[in-house]
């Protein structure tokens, strides 16, 4: 998959994102990337990994359906 430069206004949600494998790829294309995962240990590991490589991912430990229902920003790209 070839990724282009970051989208100046874009946001992406990586749902059931685990440790952020796809989220890191999305961060090269989108300005704001949020990884949503229900498993706290995956979120903790993802945060550590993202910090280690300087990735600006935001991780949220939450039930995915509830998180999406509360999303109040313009519709993002979904993965």
Q: Estimate the global geometry from the Cα principal axes.
A: flat
Distance between the termini: 14 Å
Radius of gyration (CA) equals 12 Å
Main structural class: alpha/beta
Low-confidence stretches: none
Describe the structure.
By secondary structure, this protein is of the alpha/beta class. Helices cover 34% and strands 29% of the residues. Strands 3-2-1-4 form a four-stranded parallel sheet. The longest helix has 14 residues, at 40-53. The two termini are 14 Å apart.
In terms of topology, how is this protein built?
Layout: E1 7-15, H1 21-26, E2 30-37, H2 40-53, E3 58-61, H3 64-70, E4 77-78
Parallel strand pairs: 1-2, 1-4, 2-3
Defining key terms:
79 residues, alpha/beta, 4-stranded parallel β-sheet, 3 helices, 4 strands, flat
Quick summary:
By secondary structure, the protein is α/β, with parallel strands linked by helices. The protein contains 3 helices and 4 strands; from the N terminus they run E-H-E-H-E-H-E.
